[in-house]
Amino acid sequence: MSSNLIRRYVVVGSRRTSNYIWAIICAIGGIDFLLTGLSSYFNINLLPIIHADNIIFFPQGLVMCFYGLLGILFSCYLGLTILWSVGGGFNIFDKQNGIVRIFRWGFPGKNRRIDLTYPIDEVTAIRLELKDGLNPRRTIYLCVKGQRQIPLTRVGQPMTLEEIEVLAAELAQFLQKDLI
Q1: Number of domains in the chain
Q2: I need a surface site. Which of 17, 81, 93, 152 has the fewest CB within 10 A?
């Protein structure tokens, strides 16, 4: 949402499509591994495509049970982060009231809500960090008095160079601050 005096940017957080896909894949894989390991222990075919007599419980079946439990636990973790919308939130730049508000959801507990509000006068600049390589990082930071830098962009899926440059320039122009 944009207007002449207020800009609002939504941050998706953990409710990305890739997290849904990975949670489903890990759940299916974990259940399959666990059922295969249990099939070898009980000598019963719990899955129609697996023949338990071909798998010895110790060590193959036991390891498959272990990997199955790990897959199920990881898919539960991903499911909970999606349910809680960890990392999701918004950034509001309000010239009308003279404030910048950054809101994010965290993990449940006393610090579940991360809500930062600063007067626009305390914003010194917008900083753009671009690192390429094996683990690329493309982040826009809000520089506030006191050497504090607050990341504004989403984590996990880097934006294209063009998208992040346009967004940073647009934001710096809107706030009338330097882009560094």
Answers
A1: 2
A2: 17
Smallest CA-to-CA distance from 75 within 13, 27, 135 is with: 27
The amino acid occupying position 180 is I
Q: Would you say residue 9 lies in a domain? A: no
Among candidate residues 50, 65, 84, the one where a domain is terminated: 84
In this structure, is residue 2 part of a structural domain?
no
Q: Are 20 and 58 in contact (CB under 8 A)?
A: no
DSSP state of 58: I
Token pair 């939504």: residue: 10
What residue numbers bound the domain in which 156 lies?
87-179
Query: Among the three residues 56, 84, 112, which one is the final residue of a domain in this structure?
Result: 84
Q: Do residues 17 and 108 make contact, with C-beta atoms less than 8 angstroms apart?
A: no
**pTM for this structure?**
0.85
Amino acid at 60: Q
The pLDDT tens digits for 122-150 are 999 999 998 888 888 889 999 999 889 99
**Vertex 135: Cα angle to 11 and 150 (nearest 5):** 40
Q: Are 89 and 102 in contact (CB under 8 A)?
A: yes
